[in-house]
Design a protein that fits this description.
about 475 residues; alpha/beta; Carbamate kinase; Archaeosine Trna-guanine Transglycosylase, Chain: A, domain 4; 8-stranded mixed β-sheet; about 35% helix; globular; Glutamate_5-kinase_CS; proline biosynthesis; amino-acid biosynthesis; G5K_ProB
Length: about 475
């Protein structure tokens, strides 16, 4: 069965932390692994960090500069050398590669997002190995992905990958830091990231190496993003890249899936664990169906069963975060709104409005490919407006933004006078691309639709955001949101 696989390598995996010399032996093993996977009929994308570190080595600099222009100049020097090394190694096997340098600016528009998607997919169809990296030569803090773990998750979603491999300096996720606590227990399978990872302390997740920006914290965020896009995410040790093939073989031959209650939306899924008897008798390695554990004890019981399975099948130690199935993962446009765009402000709505929006749109494909191809971004709000966020639903507006810019949506408490309760907590629930500017919204918030045109003095959309420009994550308490705050 042909699979699409994204392999992410961090700077510390590719460049020696002390000497800044490239780890050519690791890069060679990656190339050999990619070739073996391609010979099996799989398609492979590499997300490669290391441009700045290679540039530092080329310029014989001991440490990364702090000046933005200097960092970008170093990135320009290093990125060419890095892709040159990849090209040289792949050429030895007659394989072609393509360099894709990307920033958030490149996917801010839906058309741009689709263009990036189509380019990478076309390269894969041509048998070429795309090598993706953030364009550090042009990126500034406002438009950076922040780290290549996040970029790899977005890339995996772009190409509808089956598996995302995050290669790092540990062999799997542990309940605690294995370097400081010898009693740390391995977590080899995480069925549902919406419930987090019970028993795992993420508060002290490492912040990355001296030559990179990623750590375990960013990998958990990436796993949350990717699994919600329908991509299995695997953490494994980078010093043995050939293990990628062994793990792919295992996951393809013995697939696993999460048990969902189809009478509930993805936000209401039960997390009742399997009983211990079920754990003992359930053949996970033969395509077992898994219920998400909701306590540390349940999670560790699940680990014992899966750990036994991978040892019996001689599969390298790793952690797999199981993807949501096609009926429960985010659709293409939803993912773009939630994770591809930069937010410029906040809309605060009440709980009734949120419940109405999520109940109406919970099981629908928000926008068809045919619909998107016929409608430009600025026309989206004028087409097929059967429901969406109304002005009367908005309690408060924060920030300054233009029409069709992205904003966070938060739920707050509305007082009897229609104002926001300043003492009540706010909960992030999703994002929207607004049909109005922040100035306009501040004038019409809380108003019924029939008063909006009179207040503004011109004809406008009846919706603050059409349903096709609204997106809600499967869980407002997901790991990525916890770790970002």
């Amino acid at each position: 069965m042909s699979q699409t696989i994204v392999i992410k390598l961090g700077t510390s995996s590719l460049v020696d932390e002390k000497t800044r010399e490239p780890k050519l032996s690791i890069m060679t093993q990656v190339v050999e692994t990619v070739i073996q996977l391609k010979r099996q009929g799989h398609k492979v994308v590499i997300v490669s960090s290391g441009g700045i570190a290679v540039g530092l080595n080329a310029m014989e600099m001991d440490k990364k500069p702090t000046d933005l222009a200097e960092i970008q100049a170093i990135a320009a020097i290093g990125q060419g050398r890095l892709i040159g090394r990849w090209s040289m190694l792949f050429q030895q096997y007659g394989e072609k590669i393509a360099q894709i340098l990307i920033t958030r600016n490149d996917i801010l528009g839906w058309t741009q997002y689709k263009n990036a998607q189509n380019t990478i997919l076309q390269l894969l169809e041509m048998g070429v190995v795309p090598i993706v990296n953030e364009n550090d030569t042009l990126s500034i803090s406002e438009i950076k992905f922040g780290d290549n773990d996040t970029l790899s998750a977005i890339t995996a979603a772009l190409v509808s990958a089956d598996h995302l491999f995050l290669l790092t300096d540990v062999d799997c996720l542990y309940t605690e830091n294995p370097r400081t606590n010898p009693d740390a227990k391995p977590i080899v399978i995480v069925p549902n990231m919406d419930q987090g990872v019970p028993g795992v302390d993420t508060s002290n997740a490492d912040a990355g190496s001296s030559v990179g920006t990623g750590g375990m914290r960013t990998k958990l965020i990436a796993a949350d993003l990717a699994t919600n896009a329908g991509v299995n995410t695997i953490i494994m040790k980078s010093d043995a890249p050939s293990n990628v093939k062994h793990i792919v073989d295992y996951l393809v031959k013995y697939p696993k899936k999460v048990l969902y209650d189809d009478n509930k939306s993805s936000r209401e899924q039960s997390s009742e664990p399997l009983s211990l008897d079920q754990l003992k008798n359930h053949p996970y390695g033969k395509g077992g169906v898994i219920s998400p554990p909701k306590s540390e004890e349940d999670l560790l019981s699940l680990q014992d069963a899966e750990l036994k399975e991978i040892k019996e099948r001689n599969v390298p130690l790793h952690t797999v975060f199981l993807a949501k199935d096609i009926d429960h993962h985010l659709k293409n446009r939803e993912f773009w709104i939630l994770h591809g765009l930069v937010t410029k402000g906040v809309l605060i709505i009440d709980e009734d409005a949120y419940n109405t929006l999520t109940n109406e749109s919970g099981d629908e494909e928000h926008v068809s490919e045919a619909y998107v191809s016929e409608v430009e971004d600025d026309e989206m709000s004028e087409v097929d407006q059967d429901h969406g966020l109304l002005p009367k639903d908005v309690i408060e507006v924060k920030g300054s933004f233009h029409e069709l810019e992205c904003v966070d949506i938060k739920v707050g408490k509305r007082l009897p006078n229609g104002k926001l309760d300043p003492d009540a907590p706010l909960e992030y629930v999703g994002r929207a691309r607004c049909n109005f500017t922040s100035v306009e919204l501040n004038r019409i918030k809380g108003l019924p639709v029939d008063r909006v045109q009179d207040v503004l003095g011109y004809d406008v959309s009846e919706y603050v955001a059409h349903k096709d420009n609204l997106a809600f994550p499967p869980s407002a308490s997901s790991v990525s949101l916890q770790l970002k705050t």
